[in-house]
Inverse folding.
């Protein structure tokens, strides 16, 4: 639908990432105050929860308390979280969608999309443009994509109605994929059960 997102052969309007929505850098409430952390008030997302080929954030293992949330930064459902500080360049630019309210640490920049931006379009735009995003990171031993550098990245920005059409196709494709994965898992379970019966000799009469 959009052509090469970097070369932009179709001539889509281009703009800085900061114009796609509010960009927020996460933080870490003081650890020396144990009252900032709890076992379940709100998830505190780390880059480990941004997994390649997972559209949504995985479940966090760390949580903030209500007091901790007051000292933290958070996003609401629909935000796209991007790993911007990592040990390797390959980890820079990984992104995932928040499908619930979450807090997150300083290794992550999040975009809370505005009215002109479809979340699924933004997710796939960043995913497909990952190498382009990585090129904006610092060149030191620890690769860092600062908030300032991140929000200045220029991306294509098709009209919202075109983004929405793309998102409809994506959602249908994802439903088909999930259905196929479920069926595959069920078939694998049935196959394993069959093999166990065969191993025990419980199927011999069926084939004699």
């Amino acid at each position: 639908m959009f052509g090469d997102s970097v070369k932009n052969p179709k001539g889509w309007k281009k703009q800085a990432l900061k114009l796609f929505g509010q960009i927020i850098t996460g933080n870490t409430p003081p650890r020396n105050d144990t009252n900032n952390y709890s076992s379940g008030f709100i998830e505190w997302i780390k880059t480990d929860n941004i997994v390649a080929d997972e559209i949504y954030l995985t479940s966090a293992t760390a949580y903030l308390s209500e007091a901790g949330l007051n000292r933290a930064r958070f996003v609401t459902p629909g935000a796209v979280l991007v790993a911007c500080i990592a040990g390797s360049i390959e980890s820079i630019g990984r992104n995932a969608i928040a499908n619930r309210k979450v807090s997150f640490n300083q290794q992550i920049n999040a975009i809370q999309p505005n009215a002109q931006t479809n979340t699924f379009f933004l997710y796939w735009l960043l995913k497909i443009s990952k190498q382009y995003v990585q090129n904006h990171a610092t060149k030191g031993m620890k690769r860092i994509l600062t908030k300032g550098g991140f929000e200045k990245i220029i991306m294509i920005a098709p009209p919202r109605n075109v983004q929405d059409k793309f998102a409809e196709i994506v959602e249908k494709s994802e439903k088909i994929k999930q259905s196929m994965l479920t069926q595959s898992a069920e078939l694998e379970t049935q196959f394993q059960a069959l093999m166990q019966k065969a191993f025990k000799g419980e199927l011999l009469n069926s084939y004699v």
User: Anything to note?
Assistant: The radius of gyration is 22 Å.
